[in-house]
Amino acid sequence: MQSLERSLTAYAAYHRDRRNIVTHFFGVPLIVFAIILALATVSIPVGALAISWAAVLSIALCVYYVRLDLVLGVAMAAVLFLMCAGASEITARTTNAGALLGAATIFTLGWALQFLGHKFEGLKPAFFEDLMQLIIGPLFVCAEIFFLLGAKSELRRRIEERVGPTVARRIHSPATR
User: Fold this and answer.
1) Per-residue pLDDT reduced to its tens digit, 101-136
2) C-alpha span between 60 and 71 (Å, rounded)
């Protein structure tokens, strides 16, 4: 397992344009929620309980994120818990087909924002190089929020030393177009 700094640095290398990061603040949570919502329609019976695949995925992600960083992992756990609760409410009030249609719509909107952001950036999404970046994306957004609030400044400094600061508009060389 890569360290938090290495994982976020690899992701950050594809996300230096502020406009791209802003689209990720909306697009990544939409994508994660869409996946949680879709997985909330399927449950595993465990004795008298039924555990949704959304809960299983969220727990696995939380374990991974906490192993990378306790503070960011706990923040991600809170967000994933709220997403699971929201998805549970939606699936309780609609049909599976309705929930899946909603999930597909939200997923499509989230990815549209992602690709718009990468158009600003002038680079393909990080997951094209490494599928693990799909799991790091939500943690990157969480870390960026911490950075905006003035927290985790040492981590931010180390990442920026390796890939540079975020900029209003990325200036592209011919090789990155």
Assistant:
1) 999 999 999 999 998 988 877 777 777 776 777 899
2) 16
Question: Do residues 31 and 127 make contact, with C-beta atoms less than 8 angstroms apart?
Answer: no
Q: Please give the Cα distance from 33 to 119 (Å, whole number).
A: 23
DSSP-derived secondary structure letter, 123 = S
| Measured CA angle at 53 (ends 75, 49), to 5 deg | 100
How many CB atoms are closer than 10 A to CB 97?
9
Domain range annotation of the chain: 4-163
Find the largest Cα–Cα distance for the chain. 60
Q: Which of 34, 52, 66 is nearest to 139 (CA)?
A: 66
Both structure tokens of 26: 């909306």
pLDDT tens digit sequence for 125-177: 777 776 777 899 999 999 999 999 999 999 999 999 988 777 666 665 433 43
Burial (Cβ within 10 Å: 0-12, 13-18, ≥19) of residue 144: buried
**3-state helix vs strand vs coil in the chain, percent to 5:** 75, 5, 20
User: How many residues comprise the chain?
Assistant: 177
